[in-house]
Design goal:
It contains twelve helices and 22 strands. The strands form four sheets. Strands 5, 6, 7, 13, 14, 15, 16, 17 and 18 form a nine-stranded mixed beta sheet that branches. Strands 1, 2, 9, 10, 11, 12, 19 and 20 form an eight-stranded mixed beta sheet that branches. It is an alpha+beta fold. It has three domains: 2-41 and 149-219 and 315-357, FAD/NAD(P)-binding domain, CATH 3.50.50.60; 83-145 and 220-311, 2-Layer Sandwich (D-Amino Acid Oxidase, Chain A, domain 2), CATH 3.30.9; 377-460, Arc Repressor Mutant, subunit A.
Length: 476
């Protein structure tokens, strides 16, 4: 029997399972998809919010500010790129300037430092491509950017290196209560017994909670569509730029990513499912709004568009508590923005304040919280590259030309925790296929490497699991 089972392989589940391995516990994490980071942790803005937006006294405000202060060291330990680039909330009228003053006051009450109202002249020095009708901005120096799926993969991988188990393709379908915990069943017939369940199932967290007998909250989804520009336009902006928020939310942003692209979006459309299609209307809205914020947006450098679905609850705040209806069920649900920023703080709180009230926690003296980056070769010096190639010649072969990713890095991603077994799994770990050609040249080579390393026919290699097959057979 496990001490704790975490349901949901996203960034929140990853932070919690890693925190659990700091103690002598038998723990696992289950995920319904074929890989981790397949839900809202795969497709979001990657923004580390400063904390001025959330209402004072809410869980969102508390965990946002704490998570922001933890993110640099958290990402650094896990070998994940993080950059403190600062954020700008831009006002285009005098009334919006008044709203910025309210945001500044709210942020200061939340404990956010380094918040400033700047005028048009200073804004233009920071971001020359801002539209000429901007009148000022709220400058949040503690804002940052990180890669959400890299952070998720690294958190779960580090937890596995420290003894946690991962079960993929495990969609929770049925639950039985035991004297000292639960029996958790998957759709494919697997059964896990555990003392505690932590429900971090994102869009499905309401459904999972009901399986355990807790129907105290509802969870819905908001779809957000994005446009990604090539790194050739990476210096178009240097900060994360927002319009002044309205009652409908933060709206469209324009930002750099940690890998040097420019990201535009997201929209906010209520949806009943995990539909991640894009639409002409959605992408047109992103283009229109981004153009209202910035001059001459280089849309000609668009390399892809995508969407993600963000979970929200009817409580309008993060739900982080032991269920009042089901003993030993901890719900971590409705984690919308700023959930990514809050993840390190939520992980710490759930274990130290909630799990500790149920189980005795003894420190794991063998815990190692440091993990090497998933891709790194192109950033090395010539001498360092030659040294690695002398030991492993696979690092001397470039597979993805756009991102300069080597065969050695791809092989490593296939064998390290959590193992990449699909083309998209490799892509998320080492960026092979993330460049201008979007895998047009390297995808067949990546598939060949996966087949070779897993010792399976290449016709069994998929793009993203299940039936997403790349090949069906030979033609000659």
């Amino acid at each position: 029997m496990f001490d704790v089972v975490v349901i949901g392989g996203g960034v929140i589940g990853g932070a919690i399972i890693r925190e659990l391995t700091k103690y002598n516990l038998n723990v696992c994490i289950v995920e319904k998809e074929s890989d981790v980071a397949m839900g809202q942790s795969k497709a979001n803005s990657g923004i580390v919010h400063a904390g001025y937006d959330a209402k004072v006294g809410t869980n969102k405000a508390k965990f946002n500010v704490l998570g922001n202060s933890m993110m640099a060291s958290y990402a650094g330990d896990l070998g994940v790129k993080y950059r403190n680039n600062g954020s700008l909330v831009v006002a285009f009228s005098e009334s919006e300037l008044e709203t910025l003053k309210e945001l500044k006051s709210r942020g200061e009450n939340n404990g956010v430092s380094d918040l400033y109202i700047i005028d048009r002249e200073e804004l233009n020095k920071l971001e020359p491509n801002i539209q000429s009708n901007a009148v000022g901005a709220l400058y949040a120096k503690t804002g940052g950017i990180v890669c959400p799926y890299e952070l998720t993969i690294a958190s779960i991988g580090n937890a596995m290196d420290n003894g946690a188990k991962l079960y993929l393709n495990f969609e929770v379908d049925k639950v039985e209560k035991l004297g000292g915990g639960f029996k958790v069943y998957s759709k494919n017939g697997e059964v896990i017994e555990t003392k505690i369940v932590i429900n971090c199932a994102g869009l499905n967290s309401g459904k999972v909670s009901k399986l355990f007998g807790d129907d105290s909250f509802e969870v819905g989804g908001r779809k957000g569509e994005y446009i990604l520009l090539d790194r050739e336009s990476g210096d178009f902006v240097s900060h994360t730029i927002f319009k002044t928020p309205t009652e409908k939310g933060k709206g469209i942003l324009v930002t750099q990513t940690v890998d040097g692209n420019i990201l535009l979006g997201p929209t906010a459309e209520l949806v009943d499912s995990g539909d991640t299609s894009t639409s002409e209307n959605g992408l047109s809205f992103v283009q229109k709004t981004a153009s209202e914020m910035c001059k001459n947006v280089p849309f000609y450098n668009t390399i892809t568009s995508f969407s993600g679905v963000r979970a929200y609850s009817d409580k309008h705040d993060f739900i982080i508590e032991e269920s009042k209806l089901v003993k030993n069920l901890i719900n971590v649900a409705g984690i919308e923005s700023p959930g990514l920023t809050s993840a390190p703080a939520i992980g710490k709180y759930v274990v130290e304040e909630l799990v500790s009230k149920i189980l005795t926690l003894n420190i794991n003296k063998n815990f190692n919280g440091v993990r090497k980056p998933d891709y790194f070769f192109k950033n090395l010096t010539i001498e360092e590259k030659n040294e690695i190639i002398s030991k492993d010649k696979r690092y001397g072969k470039i597979v993805c030309r756009c991102e300069e990713i080597t065969e050695g890095e791809i092989v490593r991603a296939i064998h390290e925790n959590p193992k990449a077994t699909t083309v998209d799994g490799v892509k998320r770990r080492v960026r092979a296929g993330m460049g201008r050609c979007q895998g047009g040249f390297c995808q067949p080579h990546v598939a060949e490497i996966i087949a070779r390393e897993l010792n399976i026919p290449i016709t069994e290699v998929t793009k993203s699991g299940n039936e997403s097959k790349l090949l069906v057979g030979k033609t000659k």
